[in-house]
Design goal:
single chain; alpha/beta; 21 helices
Length: 535
């Protein structure tokens, strides 16, 4: 194993990289350090000297392979934050001894360890946590060693980064998720365009996809991870500008307006509500922890203002409103509405998660939250209700509640649920709702036995995704040149849409986001970016 570490370091040098970092915070090297794992009674266990022996052998072997002029560092925890684990003083001493050996050139400090999802959620803090929460720990390590100290954990903005370096807390900060949201942070700062930086909101869509075996993508920047065919910076069209009308001011509509304007087109955006943002506004209001999501709306709103998009709020745009603008292109981004169509009966008796979050419904008594979606919508609604003092049960046809809330995000929900006695009931599919006196009775089908059972509550809140609000699209379709159709091969190839199904049509018509089918934020933005980048 020691030889494998050394061979890996040699490959990094042969691959023309500038250095290598040994990882030690829940990995093999620090498993020898920590009493939580190391129970050995030989020369690799017991005393601190013995527990550090393996890491010293690894670093010595690496140095033999790469020489003294190659950069070698270690990324390690400054405190395991676990009962019986290594505390700050012990890990500071380990860092001091590693540096004193002369074998490492820098220390990269994290906090905690990664042996469980709950623990990992603190190592890589998410939205709703303070910025730079582990900087004091990194600063303590810096005081104890005489090599550069790096740190990366929830440093999402330039102000926090500047504070960390200027105050001497660390020598360098890492901004991984921040650069996934906007890879031009440094360029914009140097050019005096810091206000244009798209700030990371900590949603960890990128990180959590990795734990599902998927590629790392950014919730608000669809170009990240797709650079071979999706541009981060949309260029001007070589063709003459056109008139583009966007109907709907949620994430899909704002992105369609932004990208179309970047292409050099004249853009008008209609929004029926008094504010932009669509469902993101609800998501950000659900619980305090998720309010940072509004940063996605703020950035898009500022971007379309810079691009000169005409935004008309409080305007319900029907077909007549749209055609009065004499558009060349119409993008329908009208979103969706809560979907109760799966119920055999009782559609009018249930409430949506939207109703609860917006305050349109104020439940009293026991509340059943039925989640046939698996995302944050039902989980955040259940948390909101539990924190308000309600008796709450989350019922789902899935094996676990919130099955699509992975990795580092679900531990915060479960903590609240256990603290407030929220019942989690899997494997039951809601089929109908009836009124029985002053209670609602939900009939549930067991997914495995086929047996139907009944549960009662004062309120039943349903999350089943959305159905498209596509009336204006339907009204406009017959008079469009493409009859509302998208050329899928052209879309995938990044080519302009050129379908001509109706020679008499005066405009092209497209729809994006939830106006097509129930989407998440990332998918809605991706719809609009790849469609409009070729207009």
């Amino acid at each position: 194993i020691v030889g494998a570490y050394a061979a890996a370091a040699r490959r990094t040098m042969e691959g023309d990289l500038d250095g290598v970092e040994v990882i030690a915070y829940g990995h093999l090297v620090d498993q020898f350090w920590t009493p939580l794992v190391n129970r050995r009674t030989d020369r690799y266990g017991g005393s601190l000297e013995n527990r550090m022996r393996f890491s010293m052998e690894v670093l010595e072997a690496i140095r033999r392979e790469v020489g003294d002029d190659y950069i070698v560092g270690i990324r390690m925890s400054g405190s395991e934050d676990q009962t019986g684990g290594l505390d700050q003083d012990e890990l500071t001493e380990i860092a001091r001894q590693l540096v004193a050996s002369g074998m490492i050139d820098f220390v990269n400090v994290v906090r905690g360890w990664i042996a469980s999802d709950e623990a990992l959620s603190h190592v890589i803090p998410n939205l709703g946590t303070p910025l730079g929460p582990h900087l004091p720990l990194a600063a303590a390590i810096k005081e104890a060693v005489d090599v550069p100290v790096f740190h990366a954990a929830r440093i999402t903005d330039l102000e926090t980064a500047r504070h960390a370096v200027e105050q001497g807390l660390v020598d360098m900060v890492g901004m991984t998720r921040a650069h996934m949201a906007d890879p031009y942070i440094v360029e914009k700062l140097k050019a005096g365009r810091a206000a244009e930086i798209r700030s990371c909101v900590g949603a960890s869509y990128c990180l959590n996809r990795l734990y599902l075996g998927q590629e790392a993508l950014c919730i608000q920047n669809p170009a990240t991870g797709r650079e071979e065919h999706i541009p981060h910076v949309v260029g001007r069209s070589a063709e003459p500008g056109r008139k583009v009308v966007v109907v709907g001011g949620g994430p899909a509509g704002m992105e369609a307006a932004r990208v179309s304007a970047r292409r050099g087109h004249e853009v008008v955006l209609f929004e029926a509500a008094h504010e932009l943002g669509g469902q993101i506004n609800l998501a950000a209001r659900a619980i305090e922890r998720r309010r940072e999501l509004i940063g996605i709306v703020d950035w898009l709103a500022a971007a379309i203002e810079r691009e000169g998009v005409q935004v008309r709020l409080n305007t319900y745009a029907d077909a007549a409103t749209v055609t009065a603008e004499s558009p060349d292109v119409v993008v329908v981004a009208t979103g969706g509405e809560p979907n109760f169509n799966f119920l055999e009966a009782g559609h009018h008796l249930v409430d949506s998660t939207w109703d609860v979050i917006a305050g349109a419904v104020r439940p009293r008594g026991r509340v059943l939250v039925y989640d046939d979606h698996g995302g944050d919508q039902a989980m955040s609604t259940a948390e909101r209700l539990a924190l308000a003092g309600h008796e709450v049960a989350v019922v789902t046809p899935d094996r676990v509640a919130g099955h699509d809330v992975p990795g580092t995000l679900y531990p915060a929900y479960l903590k609240v649920f256990y603290e407030h006695d929220v019942a989690l009931i899997p494997d039951l599919r809601l089929i109908r709702v009836d009124r029985k006196g002053d209670q609602l009775a939900g009939s549930f089908l067991n997914e495995y036995t086929g047996v139907t059972s009944e549960m009662t509550a004062a309120h039943i809140v349903v999350e089943h995704g959305t159905s498209p609000l596509d009336e204006v699209y339907t009204e406009l379709r017959e008079r469009s040149s493409n009859r509302g159709e998208i050329d899928i091969p052209a879309l995938l190839a990044g080519q302009p849409q050129a379908l001509a199904r109706n020679p008499e049509g005066s405009y092209q018509l497209f729809r994006v986001g939830d106006a097509v089918a129930s989407r998440n934020i990332h998918a809605a933005l991706y719809d609009s970016l790849r469609l409009c980048m070729a207009l």
